[in-house]
């Protein structure tokens, strides 16, 4: 299957991305038995179910897509299918996925939520795992629970996921054994249900709120008459509370059987060994009773009276006072299984190209100051329930009719007149560059991604294609991509059996079903003004940044064991770190650091800070606006991420060797010749304004709005600007704030990856080295460090306008910051992970009060202070005092009684494995070495990284606990529903906390 991303993010024209493409290794494996030390009397054993030779693998049945030879497929006599492959990215890791063909659409009305509940119960207790033992066992194997070990339940499947680091033969054997017990024999007693249902209800509660209500109502309208309309994976409170052991056992017996299971494994072990493990632990699995057929998910059916002249079916106007306006309508067709052939995939590619052309036109209209903030079209096969084309629109104001009319006008033009060949060639170039890049990077695609790709293909009943196949198919069909063909596919995308739509508005009375239906039925007048004229632009035509710079020094950075990392300094003061290697073939990570970061802003600059990410990059550079930058980037792998840090600003991108010089030009050009367009600022203002009210709809939204501001002692630079502050912001004010900041501070560029070193050095001379002299950062600016609020036993109470059963609680302690304290910060991370384990055990596992409590540490490296340890949980309002009591009790217990050796092992081993895996990638080294061109201490800190994170003692942990978890240093924040009072912290709260933490 050649899978192209069908989603387009608002505000940007997203390039198509190939999602299902397995990497091509340097060799083609021959399926021959290696010398295995297999625990079967020492004999060499071959997988009996492997599909080799001329046998068609199960995933390619009915398909002429060339087989990806990197995978070894098998189908066992009991019906279970598997796919395994050797893949060394990252080294020593094996990624296991077990997919069951059961989701919320397979549930009966009384079973809603059972598929997801079964996922929880499988982790709770099973044949080889005692009650509540799963987290500990996976941590002992080096896996982080919730990251390396997790699961997902969708409408159509349940998938169990394990990314096992340090996958020794013993660890693999143990993992397959544990997983097999979870799938085949979970303990489904009333006792396990009593322990797990409160956790699921907490998860359901934390997902609730205005956004969830809108999602549920939209599903009911868009999928009327189908199972998908009313079956959310989380289920209902009534069905969850009504679940019993026998009912769950019946559900398990019906769906958890080998015929419904697919095991996918990719990792740093040979495929034969992986296949043998699958067969050993799942080969004798037998289902109970006859196989239950999949229920009919239903088709979208037009209501009575709908016809070609009146195709609009169900519509709804949804009023949520705190959410921004948005509209979605869908042209719906029945979903049917397909023969995943090359011809079928060629059609998919033209479909996706057709959408890309329309989306680029819509983005152009939005950028130029149209009636909508964003708009997009996307075709999707939704949960094997419908093949639909969705149109999404974000009106700028209450004139939603104009926004809808303008979007439909652009679509009508695409339906009436073929695109130009220039437009087609532009998108073809984008597709080609992505497919080429993915082929170049095939050797470094992570095993976890490869396994997920197969799982996704199984879910939609299609095959998989290797990157070279994708590129060959695409290049082989270019002659078929004509204006007439694109027009034909565009028209097919907008034909369907029924049209349904929803309009979300914060204002009652602004629209009704009649006006929405009328607007969708009204004839659309084709508007060709958004078509993009052909205009070729080349980087060669752009003005130089300046005179190429002079290198004043070039030498090894001095990182032990990696002498190839060089430090280059230019006469203008700019510095570069370069490291050319082929460990990540085809990828080059680039990061530019400059300026003062948050230190450079004044107390009245919050609005201009928040607008920067969208407006600063969107304004282009020199004579190039955003449209020209898009055009000049056609067919290239370029990026432009922007970040504001504690002590500097950053530009970042992942590119390739062929585009590295142009990537450096874009970064340097933004500093040397920034452009100050008006429209990007106004559009960013509109986006911020529309989003602001939604912050109040949930505790999480309020935290996102206010947490940084409060925990930085009400420093206005970290506040979220109000609509009034945004309204007062102007393009002229934006330029006044940002123009001097772009000129300040030394520049450091880091280039790590697969590139030609000398060509990169020459590109640096012409870009970074050619920048004009930089202004110094004023001394008073450099010294600015945000403070932490005065600790207090009192609670700062905020309110939200969401559901009455939702609250959040925060407790934080100040810590430190700066390069010199990095070793201590790493030891503090160990202590924080111990704290996190205890808090999860208390608030989730024992109390069922919070689904995902979290403790984290923030230690700014660029400034000498501003750090903190923060514990956060979402819970019921009445449980807020219990959270504070539990968190305080855990903190004080760590002060009095240091962690046990077992606790330390549970956190240090996953940290060791995390570092071992991360250190194989460019981004890890960029993060560790950024800033070292001016501060050599960062180099020394790399040498102690692993030992700092993995070697500690109970005494060291107790010392840090005494230093940071002071009773009078803690600061507390609670977010509760409007109209409620915070429950007081009483002796019963402390008693409850003591009970749930097991003291």
TrEMBL record:
Gene Ontology annotations of biological process type: proteolysis
Residue ranges of domain Peptidase M16 C-terminal in the record: 247-429, 732-907
Annotated transmembrane regions: none
The UniProt record lists the keyword Cell wall biogenesis/degradation: no
Keyword presence, Lipid biosynthesis: no
GO MF term list: metal ion binding; metallopeptidase activity
Domain called Peptidase M16 N-terminal: residue spans: 86-218
Leader sequence segment: 1-26
InterPro entries: Metalloenz_LuxS/M16, Pept_M16_N, Peptidase_M16, Peptidase_M16_C
Keywords in alphabetical order: Hydrolase, Metalloprotease, Protease, Signal, Zinc
Family statement drawn from the similarity comment of this UniProt entry: Belongs to the peptidase M16 family.
Name by which UniProt lists this protein: Insulinase family protein
Organism of this sequence: Pontixanthobacter rizhaonensis
Lineage: Bacteria, Pseudomonadati, Pseudomonadota, Alphaproteobacteria, Sphingomonadales
């Amino acid at each position: 299957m050649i899978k192209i991303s069908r989603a387009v993010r608002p505000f940007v024209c997203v390039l198509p991305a190939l999602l299902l493409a397995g990497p091509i290794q340097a060799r083609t494996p021959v399926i021959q038995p290696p010398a295995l030390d297999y625990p079967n009397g020492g004999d060499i054993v071959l997988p009996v179910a492997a599909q080799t030779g001329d046998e068609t693998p199960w995933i390619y049945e009915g398909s002429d897509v060339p087989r990806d030879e990197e995978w070894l497929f098998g189908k066992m006599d009991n019906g279970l299918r598997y796919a395994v492959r050797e893949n060394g990215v990252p080294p020593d890791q094996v990624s296991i996925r077990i997919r069951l063909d059961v989701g919320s659409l397979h549930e009966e009305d009384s079973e809603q939520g059972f598929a997801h509940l079964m996922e929880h119960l499988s982790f709770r207790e099973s044949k080889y795992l005692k009650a509540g033992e799963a987290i500990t066992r996976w941590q002992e194997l080096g896996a982080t629970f919730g990251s390396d070990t997790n699961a997902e339940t969708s409408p159509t499947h349940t998938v169990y996921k394990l990314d096992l680091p340090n996958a020794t033969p013993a660890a693999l054997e143990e993992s397959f054994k544990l997983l097999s017990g979870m799938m085949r024999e979970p303990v489904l007693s009333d006792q396990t249900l009593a322990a797990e249902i409160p956790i699921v209800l907490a998860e359901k509660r934390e997902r609730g709120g205005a956004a969830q209500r809108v999602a549920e109502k939209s599903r009911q309208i868009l999928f009327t008459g189908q199972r998908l309309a009313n079956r959310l994976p989380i289920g209902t409170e009534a069905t969850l509370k009504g679940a019993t052991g026998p009912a769950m056992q019946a559900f398990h017996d019906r769906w958890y059987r080998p015929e419904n299971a697919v095991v996918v494994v990719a990792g740093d072990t040979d495929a034969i060994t992986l296949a043998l493990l699958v067969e050993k632990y799942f080969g004798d699995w037998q289902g109970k009773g006859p196989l239950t057929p999949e229920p009919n998910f239903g088709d979208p059916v037009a209501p009575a009276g709908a016809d070609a002249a009146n195709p609009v079916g169900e519509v709804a106007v949804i009023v949520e006072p705190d959410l921004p306006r948005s509209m979605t309508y869908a042209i719906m067709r029945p979903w049917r299984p397909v023969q995943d052939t090359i011809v079928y995939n060629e059609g998919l590619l033209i479909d996706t190209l057709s959408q890309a052309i329309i989306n680029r036109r819509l983005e152009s209209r939005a950028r130029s100051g149209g009636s909508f903030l964003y708009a997009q079209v996307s075709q999707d096969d939704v949960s094997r329930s419908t093949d639909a084309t969705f149109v999404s629109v974000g009106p700028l104001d209450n004139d939603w009719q104009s926004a809808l009319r303008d979007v439909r006008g652009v679509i009508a033009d695409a339906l009436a007149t073929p695109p130009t060949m220039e437009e087609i060639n532009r998108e073809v170039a984008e597709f080609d560059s992505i497919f080429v890049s993915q082929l170049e990077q095939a050797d470094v695609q992570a095993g976890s991604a490869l396994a997920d790709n197969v799982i996704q293909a199984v879910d939609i009943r299609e095959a998989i294609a290797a990157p070279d196949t994708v590129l060959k198919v695409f290049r082989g069909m270019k002659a078929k991509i004509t204006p007439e063909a694109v027009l034909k596919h565009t028209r097919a995308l907008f034909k369907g059996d029924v049209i349904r739509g929803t309009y979300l508005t914060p204002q009652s009375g602004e629209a009704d079903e009649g006006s929405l239906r009328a607007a969708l039925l009204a004839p659309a007048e084709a508007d060709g003004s958004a078509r993009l004229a052909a205009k070729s632009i080349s980087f060669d035509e752009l003005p130089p940044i300046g005179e190429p710079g002079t290198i004043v020094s070039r030498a090894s950075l001095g990182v032990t064991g990696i002498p190839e990392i060089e430090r280059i300094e230019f006469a203008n003061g700019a510095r570069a770190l370069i490291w050319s290697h082929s460990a990540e073939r085809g990828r080059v990570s680039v990061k530019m650091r400059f300026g003062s970061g948050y230190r450079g802003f004044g107390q009245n600059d919050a609005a201009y800070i928040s607008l920067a990410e969208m407006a600063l990059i969107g304004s282009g550079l020199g004579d190039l606006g955003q449209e020209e930058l898009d055009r000049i980037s056609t067919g290239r792998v370029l990026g432009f991420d922007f970040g504001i840090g504690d002590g500097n600003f950053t530009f970042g991108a992942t590119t390739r060797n062929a585009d590295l010089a142009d990537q450096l030009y874009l970064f340097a050009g933004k500093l040397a010749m920034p452009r100050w367009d008006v429209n990007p600022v106004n559009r960013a203002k509109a986006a911020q304004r529309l989003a602001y009210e939604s912050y109040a709809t949930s505790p999480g939204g309020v935290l996102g709005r206010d947490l940084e501001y409060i925990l930085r002692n009400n420093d206005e630079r970290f506040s979220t600007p109000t609509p009034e502050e945004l309204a007062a912001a102007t393009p002229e004010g934006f330029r006044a704030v940002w123009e001097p900041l772009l000129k300040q501070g030394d520049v450091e560029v880091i280039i790590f990856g697969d590139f030609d070193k000398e060509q990169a050095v020459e590109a640096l001379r012409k870009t970074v080295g050619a920048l004009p002299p930089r202004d110094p950062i004023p001394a008073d600016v450099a010294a600015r460090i945000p403070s932490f609020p005065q600790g207090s036993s009192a609670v700062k109470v905020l309110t939200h306008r969401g559901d009455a059963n939702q609250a959040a609680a925060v407790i934080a302690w100040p810590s430190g910051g700066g390069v010199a304290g990095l070793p201590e910060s790493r030891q503090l991370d160990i202590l924080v992970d111990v704290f996190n384990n205890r808090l999860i055990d208390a608030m989730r596992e024992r109390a069922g009060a919070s689904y995902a409590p979290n403790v984290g540490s923030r230690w700014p490296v660029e400034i000498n202070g501003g750090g903190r340890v923060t514990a956060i949980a979402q819970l019921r309002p009445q449980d807020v005092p219990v959270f504070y009591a539990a968190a305080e009790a855990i903190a004080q217990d760590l002060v009095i009684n240091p962690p046990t050796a077992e606790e330390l092992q549970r956190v240090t081993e996953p940290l060791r494995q995390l570092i071992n895996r991360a250190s194989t990638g460019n981004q890890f080294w960029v993060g560790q070495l950024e800033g070292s061109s001016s501060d050599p201490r960062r180099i020394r800190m790399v040498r102690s990284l692993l030992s700092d994170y993995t070697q500690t003692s109970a005494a060291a942990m107790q010392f840090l606990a005494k230093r940071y978890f002071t009773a009078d240093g803690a600061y507390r924040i609670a977010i509760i529903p409007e109209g409620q009072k915070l429950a007081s912290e009483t002796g019963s709260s402390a008693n409850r906390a003591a009970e749930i933490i097991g003291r």
